[in-house]
Amino acid sequence: MTTDKENKGSRFESMCVPGSLEPADLASLDWSKLGFSVTVTPYMGGSVAGPDGVFEPCAVVKTGVLRVPPQACALNYGQSIFEGMKARRGVDGKIRLFRPEANAARFARSAERFMMPAVPQDLFIETVTKVVKANRDYIPPAEKGSLYIRPVLFGIGKTLQPAPADTTMFVVYVQPVGVYFKGMATISIKADDTFQRAAARGTGWVKAAGNYAPCFLPAYEAKHEGFSDVLYLDHDGVNVEEVGSANFAMVKGGKLYVADSPSILKGITRDSVMRIAMEMLGIEVVFAPLELERVLGLGKYASEGPADEAFCTGTAAAISPIGSMKWKGQSYTFGGGAIGPITQKLFDAIDGIQTGRRPDPYGWTVVVE
Ligand code: PLP
Ligand code: COI
User: Fold this and answer.
1) Which residues in 176-187 are b (16+ Cβ under 10 Å) and which e?
2) Does residue 18 have its Cβ closer than 6 Å to ligand 1?
3) How far, in Å, CA of 303 to CA of 54, rounded?
4) Strand spans (E) along 65-105
5) 85, 128 in Cβ contact below 8 A?
6) How many Å apart are CA 92 and CA 298, to the nearest integer?
7) pLDDT for 58-92, tens place per residue?
8) What structural domains does the chain harbor?
9) Which SS3 state, helix, strand or coil, does residue 1 take?
10) Atom 3, ligand 2: which residue's CA is nearest?
């Protein structure tokens, strides 16, 4: 294992205070009570690129705060992107990552749009793997949760001009998590056209830190009204976009409709679900803009009624079944509010692959040796 002794003198090490954050006491962690909140683990990793845009070899250090100047571009102008991944302990005891190269590729696309040097795929996967291994004791037992992996890339260099920083920091930290919404229990969602998550030709497709803070207020209001989250619509208020942290899909008449839009995040779970549906379950998939009226059975879809099943997909959210949706004061129920059979099959398939309970015909999982 790499330790804080290795790569001593790296720029990364000089830009953090290793060991300054106390890790959670392992003995006091209750795996069955994990939600999606902060738990500090002992090690983090990272690398820094200077003006030449070349990242140094990664260093794994004891977890600590970062030395960020007040003039850092990320703080002042939001030059910050991230990824979300999970390592899972399988039923066979092996630790698996899920499609890490897809996260590396999306991280690189996000970096390019925000004018930061892209972290090369090898460095991305090496850092993730080393940090997971270093914190392996914090990976929940099989079926009890996951080790959530958070790679972050941000402009740490000082700027006053609204322009890219000359120094970019890549950090990977990990922590155990349980369910994000309610796991495999149905949630209620509020469809909303008073707030928009992303502009039509903006950066909604980028996993930018700045896409999330604007969703805090709508989500806070929705939670206050008893909903788990908000379903955002496009700029015309016609098509479904996504939930603030997950993509949206529904089942109607045996077909799977997966919402697409240029301004939403291209989810890796969404992509995996579509392949499983088409190739393993033989379900027809309609991957296109999806009208809210089609979801709710309104307007020209009135004779069809609301979706038979609805769910959202994401690394944190996994597959979260949606039992009902509120729109303009009316409540619509999908499949009697219960978990739909296709939703359950998709969950079982993807969860089975991620935990080694089922074969992985696509080679999506990477075992951390
Ligand atoms: N949409 C948003 C806004 C997200 O933050 C996420 C989570 O990463 C997703 C969708 C789902 O993406 P993925 O399945 O790659 O985790
Ligand atoms: C993820 O699913 O990994 C995400 O990044 C969403 C996050 C807001 C929890």
Assistant:
1) bbbbbbeebebb
2) no
3) 58
4) 65-66, 80-82, 85-89, 95-98
5) yes
6) 47
7) 999 999 999 999 999 999 999 999 999 999 999 99
8) 11-177 (3.30.470.10), 187-355 (3.20.10.10)
9) coil
10) 84
